[in-house]
Hints:
By secondary structure, the chain is an alpha+beta fold. It folds into 2 domains: 16-146, 2-Layer Sandwich (Alpha-Beta Plaits); 158-204, SH3 type barrels (Roll), CATH 2.30.30. It contains 4 helices and 16 strands. It has a 5-stranded antiparallel beta sheet, with no helix packed on it. Strands 4-7-3-8 form a 4-stranded antiparallel beta sheet.
Amino acid sequence: MYLLPPKPVAATTQGQFRKTNGGNTSMTSSDPIVKSNDLWRDINWFAVHAKPRRESFAATNISALGIGILLPRIKVERLVRGAAQQGTKPLFPGYFFARFCPQDSFESVKAARGVLQVVSSGRMPIPVYEEVVREIQDRIEEDGLIRIRSHHFGPGTRVSIQSGPFEGMMGKVERELDDRKRVAIFLETLLNARVLIERRWIESAAA
């Protein structure tokens, strides 16, 4: 399952956004006014958009400025010349987090090598929820990686194949095998041919 970068906090001169019980954001005029000048002077976490496959390079250059960095990574297994090889990749491909004061460091962060942009609204960088960053940090294990919980693929689940000989094809799950490592799938692009796929090679597809 692809994970997207967390939705940032938006600021307004008319009020402030906050989370409701349903997890959405709402604005209330009774809350203290959050001015853009305050956000410009405060130290917050911000999402940084890196050039393709340059997340580590960009994060290293920003870290050299004395700025705190969070580049969460997960372990992945890729098929290389028919053999499975272990590797890592960013939890949010193309993005990482930096903690800084925009007034002091915004221009330096934007100009760092490997950076495309700091996620912003107009000219104002958008802070990321502190609790979102803290939750990610809490899930980092001793080896520096985040473990993604194994996803259950029930019968009829539509999936996309991300690796292996059928990479790029779509199908529907018939059943998971008892070893929990393989899944029987009907491939839509091969007239519903039934194949066994390593479960690590598939991801749930949008309906």
